[in-house]
Write a structure and sequence with these properties.
Strand content: 5-15%
Radius of gyration: 23 Å
Order of helices and strands: HHHHHHEHEHEHEHEHHEEHHHEEEHHEEH
Largest sheet: 7 strands, mixed
Low-confidence stretches: none
Strand order of the largest sheet: 1-7-6-5-4-2-3
Mean pLDDT: 96
Structural class: alpha/beta
Helix content: 40-55%
Number of strands: 12
Bound molecules: ligand DCS
Length: about 475
C-alpha cells in the first residue's frame, strides 16, 4: 500500500512553505509554560480583550438583543437596555431576514454594506458603492480572497513591505505566488523610498516575475508608521506608472497616536488626484472590527472596498465568495455598528464617546511608556509607535549571543525572545517572523498590556535585557 492521501508526504506542498510567526514557536512555548503554571503576558498578538480591554458597551447591548430577540418582548427590556440600543437591534433584525441564525448574501447584508459605504463617504468625501463592498470574516479572509484572485502561479509577484504582517507572506506561499519584498527604512521611522520600490520591481522582473500588486499596511504592522498624504501620492503614482494594483490594508485606521500624520485613506488620496489615475488605478482597501478601539477580534468582522475593478472580475470574486455561503452574520452587525456608531444627541452617545476616547488615550500613553522603556536600554533602539498597536524595537545583540543562538540552531532574535519569555513570562514575536535586514534583530510586542502594569513590564524587560547583555558580553 502506497502513501495515503493525507500522509504528510502527500499533502499540498505549498502548505509546507507557509510560516506564520504570530502563532509560531514563541507562542507555542508560551502556551506550554502557561500549562506548567507560569504567568504569561501574551503580548504577542494584537488581541485587546485578551489583555483586559473592556468591550464597548453599546455594540454588546445591540448584539445581545439581536442574539436573543425574545428579550425585546420582555416588559422590563427598557430597564436593562437604552432606547437607542433597542431601536438599532430592531433595525438589524428587520434588515436581516431570519435574524442572526440565517445565512446572509455571500457579499454580506446589503443594509450593512450600505452603512459601510456611507461611512466611507463621510470619511473621504467621495461616493462609495455598496455593491463594491464585501463583508468578510475578518480582514484576513478578505485579503486571502483578493490574493487568490490575483495569483495565477509562481510567476506572479506581490510587492510586500518588510517588515510585514505574515498574513501576506503566508497567503502568497499558500497560493503559490512570489513575494517581492520592499524594505522599510528603520532610520527614517520605517519610511519607504520609491527608488527602492523601483529597484525591487526591476530585480523581480529580471528574474521573470510579473509584479502585479503592491501591498501597503497603513498604519504599519509591526512597524507602526503612518503614511503621509505625500507618501500615499508617491505610492499611487508609482503603482499607476508600473501598472500595479494597490492593496491598502487599513485595519488600524482608528489607532493613531500622534497628530503630525493623521490617518488618510488611500481611496481619498486616489480620488483627490483626479483623472486619469482616479479612474484607472485598481485599489482594494481592507478594514476590520478587530482593531481600533473596538478590538472585537473574536467576532471575525471585516470588509474590503473595490475601486476601479472591472464588473466581470467583481462577479468572479462574488462567485468564489458564494462557496463559503455567508460571512459571519453577528460580525456583520458589529461592522454596521462600528461604521455607524451612536451620534451626538443619541442616548448612548456620551457613554460610547467616553469609552472610545478613554481607550485611545490610554493606548497613546502606553505607546509612549513602551517606546521610552525600550529606549532606556543602551542596546535597544525603538521608533515611536505612531499608529497600530505594536512596538518593534531593534535589539542590538553581542556576537557571543548570536554565536550561541546559531549553535542552538535558532535565529538570534528567536533565542533572545525565548530567554525573555522564560525569564519574565513576556511573550513576544521575534523580528525574524516579520522579515528584517540581514544581521539586524527586533522583537514585536503589543502596546496592549493594562496601563497600570506597563511600567512593571518595562522594568522587568530592562532587568532581563541588562542581565542578558552581561551574560553574553
Ligand atoms: C495588518 C493586518 N491586517 C489584517 C489583520 C487581520 O485582522 P482580522 O482578520 O482580525 O480582521 C491583522 C491582524 N493582526 C494580527 C492579529 O493580532 N496581531 C497581529 O499581528 C493585521 O495586523
Amino acid at each position: 500500500m502506497g502513501l495515503k492521501p493525507l500522509d504528510y508526504e502527500s499533502i499540498n506542498e505549498n502548505m509546507k512553505k507557509v510560516e506564520y510567526a504570530v502563532r509560531g514557536e514563541l507562542y507555542l512555548r508560551a502556551s506550554e509554560l502557561q500549562k506548567e503554571g507560569k504567568k504569561i503576558i501574551f503580548t504577542n498578538v494584537g488581541n485587546p480583550h485578551a489583555l483586559g480591554q473592556k468591550p464597548l458597551t453599546f455594540p454588546r447591548q445591540v448584539i445581545a438583543l439581536c442574539q436573543a430577540p425574545f428579550l425585546l418582548d420582555d416588559p422590563n427590556v427598557g430597564q436593562l437596555f437604552p432606547p437607542d440600543a433597542i431601536v438599532r437591534a430592531k433595525h438589524y433584525l428587520s434588515m436581516i431576514g431570519g435574524g442572526l441564525g440565517a445565512y446572509s448574501d455571500s457579499r454580506g447584508n446589503p443594509g450593512v454594506r450600505k452603512e459601510v459605504a456611507e461611512f466611507i463617504e463621510r470619511r473621504d468625501g467621495y461616493p462609495s458603492d455598496p455593491e463594491l463592498i464585501y463583508l468578510t470574516d475578518g480582514a484576513s479572509k478578505g485579503v486571502m480572497q483578493i490574493l487568490n484572485t490575483i495569483i495565477r502561479g509562481e510567476g506572479d509577484g506581490i510587492l510586500v513591505p518588510v517588515p510585514q504582517y505574515p498574513l501576506y507572506s503566508a497567503t502568497i506561499a499558500l497560493f503559490g505566488g512570489s513575494l517581492v519584498p520592499y524594505y522599510l527604512d528603520e532610520s527614517s521611522n520605517w519610511g519607504l523610498d520609491v527608488n527602492d520600490l523601483r529597484q525591487s520591481v526591476a530585480r523581480a522582473r529580471s528574474q521573470g516575475i510579473t509584479v502585479r500588486v503592491m501591498v501597503i499596511i497603513n498604519p504599519g504592522n509591526p512597524t507602526g508608521q503612518c503614511l503621509s498624504e505625500a507618501n500615499l501620492r508617491e505610492i499611487l503614482n508609482f503603482c499607476f506608472q508600473e501598472n500595479l494594483a494597490l492593496l491598502g490594508d487599513e485595519v488600524y485606521q482608528q489607532n493613531i497616536y500622534q497628530d503630525e500624520r493623521p490617518f488618510i485613506s488611500s481611496k481619498k488620496v486616489l480620488m483627490d488626484m483626479g483623472p486619469p489615475i482616479s479612474k484607472e488605478l485598481q485599489l482594494i482597501s481592507f478594514h476590520t472590527v478587530s482593531k481600533g478601539y473596538w478590538g472585537e477580534c473574536g467576532q471575525r468582522g471585516g470588509y474590503f472596498e473595490m475601486t476601479n475593478i472591472p464588473p466581470q472580475t467583481v462577479d468572479e470574486i462574488y462567485k468564489i465568495a458564494s462557496i463559503s455561503l455567508s460571512p459571519n452574520v453577528p460580525a456583520q452587525v458589529f461592522m454596521g455598528l462600528m461604521v455607524n456608531p451612536p451620534k451626538p444627541g443619541d442616548v448612548s452617545y456620551e457613554q460610547y464617546h467616553r469609552e472610545s476616547k478613554g481607550i485611545l488615550e490610554s493606548l497613546r500613553r502606553r505607546a509612549r511608556i513602551m517606546t521610552d522603556g525600550f529606549n532606556s536600554c543602551k542596546n535597544v533602539v525603538c521608533n515611536f509607535t505612531e499608529g497600530a498597536m505594536y512596538s518593534f524595537p531593534q535589539i542590538q545583540l553581542p556576537p557571543k549571543a548570536i554565536e550561541t543562538a546559531k549553535r542552538a540552531g535558532k535565529e538570534a532574535d528567536v533565542f533572545y525572545c525565548l530567554k525573555l519569555l522564560e525569564a519574565t513570562g513576556i511573550s513576544t514575536v521575534p523580528g525574524s517572523g516579520f522579515g528584517q535586514k540581514e544581521g539586524v534583530f527586533h522583537l514585536r510586542t503589543t502596546i496592549l498590556p493594562p496601563e497600570e502594569e506597563m511600567p512593571g513590564i518595562m522594568a522587568s524587560f530592562r532587568k532581563f535585557n541588562d542581565e542578558f547583555m552581561e551574560q553574553y558580553a
